[in-house]
Amino acid sequence: KIYSKKPFNANGDFTFDRSTVATRVNKDGYIETVAIDIPRLNYPFVDGVVQDDPSLLLEPAKSNVIPYSNGYTGWSATRGTLTQNSIVSPDGNTNATLFTKTEGSNEGWSSDSFTVSAVGTYTVSVFMKKGNNDFAHILFWDNSANGIRVFFNLENGSVGTNTSFGTTFTHNSSSIEDYGKGWYRCISTITVTGSDVGWMLRLQPSGGDGNINTLSGKTFYYYGTQVEAGSYPTSYIPTSGSAVTRAAESAT
User: Fold this and answer.
1) What single-letter DSSP state applies at residue 8?
2) Which of 42-51, 97-106, 116-125 shows the lowest mean pLDDT across its residues?
3) Which pTM does this prediction carry?
4) DSSP output for 190-251
5) Which residues make beta-bridge pairs with 41?
6) Terminus-to-terminus CA distance in the chain, angstroms?
7) Strand, helix or coil at 154?
8) Is 54 exposed, middle or buried (0-12, 13-18, 19+ CB in 10 A)?
9) CA-closest candidate to residue 190, choices 152, 160, 150
10) CA-CA distances (angstroms) from residue 203 to 67, 71, 117, 118, 157?
11) DSSP string over 2-48
12) 50 and 44 Cβ atoms separated by less than 8 Å
C-alpha cells in the first residue's frame, strides 16, 4: 500500500504490486534490495551527491542476462588478475572486484559470457571506479569476432569515443552517471544485427580515449554488471549464476 495524505478516507491510496525483489538507491546513497511487493522510494544522484527527496520507482519487467553480475565468480581474466572484495562498492559492502593488468604488450581484460535470445537493442551498464588508470572501456563481443568498444574516462566522468569492427553491432548511445565516492555507472546502448547469439562482455583498462593497450600494472574496479533488452538502463538486477528477471510493477 502507498498511502495518500489527502483525502483521509483512503480513496487516494495506491495498491502496489511487484512479484519479485528489486533494488533501489536508499537515502544514504547505497544500492539495496527491497522485498517482494514493497514500493521503492529511490533517491537520485546529482553530480555524485544523493538528493534528499526520493521518487516512486516504477519499472517494466527486465532481465539481466549476465550470469554473474558482481564480477568475480564466473568471470575470467586474460593477461590480468582479479581480486575480489577489494573496496566498498555502490551497495555499501566491501565486494567490488579489482582488475590488474599483468602484461604490457597485448590487451588484457576481465570477461563473462552470456546469451541473448534475439537480435535487437540491448543496454549494457556497469559500475566502474578508477584505480591507477584514468580510462577503461567496455567491449561487447561475439563468437564471430565482431565487436564494439566504448571508452570511459573514470577520472572526470565523461564518455569517450566508440569503435566497432565487423557487422554485428551498431552503437546507439552511451552515457555515464556519477554515483559518488569515485563510482560511475557506465552505460552503452547498442543494436545487435547478427544472428550469432554467443556473446562476451569484456571490461578493460585503456591507455586513453581510443587507446586499447595499456602498460602492465594498470587497474580499475568494477561492480554490478548488467545487460538487458531495451534502449535504456534500469535499476541494478543482481545475478549469481543465471539470468534474473525483475517483475513489472504497478501502483493502482
Assistant:
1) T
2) 116-125
3) 0.94
4) EEE-SS--EEEEEEEEESBTTB----TT-EEEEEEEEEEESSS--S----BSS-EEEPP-EE
5) 56
6) 9
7) coil
8) middle
9) 150
10) 15, 10, 22, 23, 17
11) B--SSSTTSTT-B-EE-SS-EEEE-TTS-EEEE-TT--EEEPPEETT
12) yes
Number of neighbouring beta carbons within 10 Å of residue 44: 14
Distances (CA, A) of 142 to 20, 139, 185, 188: 31, 10, 23, 16
Query: What are φ and ψ of residue 137, in 5° steps?
Result: -145, 155
Residue 61 near residue 250, CB atoms below 8 Å: no
Cell of 73: 565468480
Nine cell digits for residue 207: 591507455
Amino acid at 150: V
Widest Cα–Cα separation across the chain: 71
Other Cβ atoms less than 10 A from the Cβ of 171: the count is 17
Say how far residue 107 (Cα) sits from the centre of its chain: 22
> Per residue in 196-234, pLDDT tens?
667 889 999 999 999 988 889 999 999 999 999 999 999
The whole-angstrom separation of Cα 49 and Cα 180 is: 6
Q: Confirm if 239 and 68 have CB atoms less than 8 A apart.
A: yes
